Amino acid sequence: MDNELFDIIIIGGGPAGMFAQYYAGLRELKTALIEATPRFGGQVSALYPEKKILDLPTFINITGRDLIDKLAKQSQLVDSKSFFNSQVTDLQKKDDLFEIEINHHAYLRSKSVVVATGSGSFSPRRVSVPGSDNAEQGGRLRYLLPDFKNCREKSFAVVGGGNTAVDYANELIDHGKKVSLIHRRENFRALESSVSKLENSELVSFYLPKRIASLDQQSDGISIELEDLKDQNIEKIKVDQLIGGYGFTASSAIIDAWSLSAKKYRYRFATDSKQMSSVPGLFVIGDASAYPGKADLIATGFGEAPTAINSAVEYFDPDRGGPQHSTSLDPKKVFTDD
Ligand SMILES: Cc1cc2nc3c(=O)[nH]c(=O)nc-3n(C[C@H](O)[C@H](O)[C@H](O)COP(=O)(O)OP(=O)(O)OC[C@H]3O[C@@H](n4cnc5c(N)ncnc54)[C@H](O)[C@@H]3O)c2cc1C
Known about the structure:
FAD/NAD(P)-binding domain; five-stranded parallel beta sheet; elongated; FAD/NAD-bd_sf; alpha/beta; binds flavin-adenine dinucleotide; 9 helices; seven-stranded mixed beta sheet; Fd--NADP_Rdtase_type_2; NADP
């Protein structure tokens, strides 16, 4: 691996980085994708593989897992290397080349870099009440949806009122599970159609405006003590599993420590209309990039990926010319196994 020179190195194997890898392959560039975890998929694989994604073109709905499988198949069609378990621990620019340090000891060089690191590494916002540590250790309190293929539990409670909680609850009812939805307000901050779906389901019981006062993990379920926030009345419900749906916080500590620093906008890399950062040759896409009006959606990253790749080519090889439409590409030349 050491010191190999690439045209473009993509840092991060979430949906944005994966599509950038495929698109760079269509342009027959020498590329590598570097991913810190053992697998592709970023937030989609880590946080919501079972959720149905409704806001992507061409798919009426597709689970996170299926989307990432399809992206992986697509990027395997082109000639590009992928390095897993490889965290980029430092990034420097020396003369006109970027030096990428991996896991503190290996190095790659590249003419340009596309950063697709999302918002860094994710951890859930925890439910913190008496009994929650015990329930988490015993597995009755979790923060991700279960693998439905092996899921015997029938009744669930979900706590939270934003997109995470509402998406989780909808996914559970799609799998025929009963859901008690607990939220401290009377309305939800989530996609309107998702909220309507919940409100029309017979499988959902709403506990509003209520907060969890304590948890009691038991051998046959979890007992949840709820306090009504209007009249302070206490009631108890019991379910097989409680799922925390308060969302996730991201940490970009490793990326913030890179030697190369580029301008930030709202704690992310500020990018221009070519997806270029304040450092020439350093492009940023997906959730890692920010500009006024940015929407943190998978579809946004899919659009930014070709822009960044084409801008990178213009940066390191201005004579090469602009992109062609894929209709004029020769599949035999572009696809490795065609
Ligand atoms: C619960 C939830 C539900 C969502 N639902 C939807 C939805 O329905 N529709 C939608 O469009 N969007 C949804 N989103 C948002 C969507 O998941 C993100 O916009 C999308 O994942 C961003 O993709 P990305 O490739 O930019 O980053 P990410 O998916 O965050 O991937 C970044 C990758 O970079 C890697 N990485 C980070 N740092 C390094 C490093 N130093 N070295 C190497 N690799 C590194 C990470 O391991 C990760 O794999 C949801 C998000 C959440 C949390």
